[in-house]
Amino acid sequence: MPIAKNLLNSFLRLLILLSCSAALGATSAGPSQSLVAATRDGQHDFDFEIGTWRTHLRRLLHPLTGSQQWVDCDGTTTVHKVWSGRANLVELEARCPAGYFEALSLRLYNPESHQWSLNFATSNSGRFGQPTTGEFRNSRGEFFDQETFNGQAVFVRFVISHVNRESCRFEQSFSSDGGKTWELNWVGVDRRVPEAELAKSGAGRSSEQERPHDFDFELGSWNIHLKRLLHPLSGSKNWVEFDGSTVTRKVWGGRSQIEEFEVNNPSAHIEGLTLRLYDPQSQQWYLYWANQKTGTLGQPTIGEFRNGRGEFFDQEPFNGRAILVRYVWSGITPNTAHFEQSFSDDGGATWEVNWITDQRRVKDEANRAERN
Question: What's the pTM?
Fold first, then answer.
């Protein structure tokens, strides 16, 4: 979402993306060690942040105008591990002068580029904007992107610093001159919530507001069997099969879900996640997929449920051609579900199924408690 459309959302994004980072795993590197720094394993940079934090923000109301009018905001940020810590999901609840909001950030590490992509969404829109990308060097995290502000292209810089086990600091700055100068417009400090206070107050628990229930059936743990067509849209009938498991849990008190997915066969391993976000305005779901090998978030498939069947569509490149993609959920019972992916290269006139998943619920007390 362009910054110019909603300055408050820019603030939310900064808060959720950089609420309190972990740079304790970063190694010091001088100029002679630049190659080492460029290729270091940074997948544990955010480990320190797992847990719950109190966040205090100061926001410049009118950036790039010479204004010195600031406002304050306070909130709670909770950070959860994803893929056993190789990614993480941040949930934020806060109150500012403009009112109450919820937001989240999915942080993904790319093992090839050794950089993080920070993907942000609010519960008002249910959609991710463009990611902010960067890395840690010398225990300092810097993340950049280019956005539109008041009709002008600007660079955005997020900086994480002053990190210790109980607090940290983050800043956002804008540059309208190609990075020659930067104006600070957000300053935030996070302080960890003590365990005793967390248990007593319930801090970090998302409020139970009205929410859609379409994907409630998915909450919990499942055993899955997967069939995958090796060469879609080629006439091939060569399928491979996998077995594994998937776990889905609530985000925003159930108004979103994150699913972690892992399957194996004797020669291959697939590990991924799906983040499902609901747009209350369009009353449709946005389904985002990422896999652990690339650490990047794909474009969403968009759709809805009708009569117990969910259909979701998008257009993607495949083998150099634009094709249509369709996801279908069906056969849904309390303990089973069926999922298919299909491709079409003729505008939806015909569809070829290339991915079939059958799920059976894992029945245990922990799983039932999670669903409730």
Answer: 0.80
